[in-house]
Amino acid sequence: MLETLGLLANGFTIVFEPQNLALIIAGCALGLFIGAMPGLGSVNGVAILLPLTFLVPPTGAVIFLAAIYYGAMYGGAISSIMLGIPGASTAVATTFDGRPLAKLGMADKALTAAAVASFVGGSISVVLFTFFAPPLAHVALVFGSPETFALMMLAFATFIGLGGDDIFKTLFSICIGLVLSAVGFDIISGEPRLILWDITGFLHGVNFLVLAIGIYGIGEMIWTVEEHNLGGGKSMLSEATVTVKRTIANLRELLSSWRATVMGSFLGYFVGILPAAGATPGSLMAYGIAKQISKNPEEFGKGALEGVCAPEAANNAASTGSMLPMLTLGIPGSPTTAILLGGMVIWGLEPGPRLFIDHSEFVWGLIASLYAANLFAVIIMLIFIPVFIKILKTPFTILAPIIFILCLIGGYAPTQSMHDVWLMVVFGIVGYLMRKLDYPLAPAVLAIVLGPLAEPALRQSLLISDGEFSIFFTRIYAGPIMVTAIILLFLPVLKIGYDKFRHRPA
Amino acid sequence: MSVRTAELLMALTMGAFSIYLMYKSAELPIGWIDGEGPGGGAWPFWLATIMLVSCVGILFNWFRRHGPIANSEKAYIESRVLMDIGAVALSLIVTVGLFSFIGIYGALPLFLIFYLRFLGKHSWRLTTTLAIGIPVLIFYFFEVTLKIILPKGITEPLFIPLYKIFF
What we know:
The complex is a heterodimer. Chain A is built from 22 helices and 2 strands. Chain A is mainly α. Chain A has one domain (about 1-235, about 240-395, about 400-500). A two-stranded antiparallel sheet of chain A has the order 1-2. In chain A, a hairpin with a 6-residue loop joins strand 1 and strand 2. Chain A is globular, with a radius of gyration of 22 Å. Chain B has 2 domains: about 5-70, no CATH class; about 80-165, no CATH class. Chain B is an all-alpha fold. Chain B is built from 7 helices and 2 strands. In chain B, about 75% of the residues lie in helices and about 0% in strands. The interface between A and B is large, with 62 and 69 residues.
């Protein structure tokens, strides 16, 4: 406990270095902006901007990206409330009551509630994070290859068991991500592998960023072009009057929603830890529960403050929660943290529990930066609400080409190869076409990041056991993890069987 | 093309791609090698096999019309947005194609002019400001600050004086 506080204090000394502080503030502001733009969320921002972080050391880079992640969670509420369009999928639940409040002329109240609830959610979860992470990492230190592989199976199984998408399409998405990560060289024999159509560009493999920017940059923008009809649809921006006096009055009124906010924070944090769940389902669940425990459930959907507080607290808490498995186990809890994990590999860090020992300043710098980012994001949001509302008026046809250009250069920068830029455009277009058919794409991004870690884990495990798969079931930690994974894998089948049984004609 | 037809075509294409991946993986040993464990091709081979099985599953659901996608007779991409999406996708492909010939600083202004002026219908003033301003910012940020040299194509000689100033 005391040791943790000491490490955290060290983290703060890193955070308060002028450059890192500047990175946090810039990251929060950028994240708020990205979150506020309809169609762009934290995952898009982090994917597109990761190549820009090559300039700073790893700690600064991860602090910057984590601040974007945080800022985007705050920012998502802005367009949910002002436009009625979720700024990111994580802010869908915020539209349910945020939009009605805005229509009643209380947009400022809804925005203040969103900011404060986000702050509470972020604060509670970051404290939980601080005290959960070191023991978990400590346990994980004894993990060998079988445990690592079992954990990865668990991560993928959550997508199938809890993701709610078509099982075959989810399975396809996971496997294609893993296969793409196997392109290049066989790490053990050193032979070239899967050089598709004998194009030499595949010799250096498929960089996870190429897939991530392809899907979350180019594919997402094409998706948005379709939804916005090239900006033809006029926005229905609400008006908001923001004065200091009104803000203080709004803050007072918020006290009555504390139950929903605290519930949302805890729920969001624990849902966020699960790879397939994360901020979107977390916030939707929080909304549902807030309605059930509310004294005035009939007000939900008509402009209940609790209906804004619960999901906003939950989505911020979930974003912190998803970092827990990423830092301690090397298994990302969300697509955004998958990209952060991929970034760590680029920066030369080996993800996993040893990070806490080998790169203590990186880990604690990141954790301390979450405290700081949380504080800065709420301050920036409360002060600059009018500015963000103005930004929402920027036509999409100005923003879109700029984002496309950032994507193209972002795809080129890591490897400086035109092959990767072409591949990224192909992934973007194919990803868009697949997304239209409800293929989930997040599992593929998670898989391409985890692939290079999963394959050696599997091969080493099998080498230890001389080819016996029982090694994954007989070890003290690997066994229960693997069994949980298998139960999750068969959950959809069990559910179908149960439904059939229940609806059986008597 | 209806969503239902697109679903069939996508599953068939991805199924064929899975078979190709299985074939490519098998170029390396996919069986057990004594003392080395599974061969280098085993991991991608079995994953590609699962991909193929998934595609067969998707096709099976398609035939028995299971789920909303397999039943949807709506247009896959509505005609009102098809032109927009086509224009955006094509302009991206042309821009990337031009990178190698007239360089990034030739291609990006053209892309911006096309997008802002012809797709976005913005004023010429805004269009030219951004078409010049954004490439200049990119040069400063990526080439001067990050030292990442972007493709120039035939415009390379024009940049030699600039390199002398900044490097």
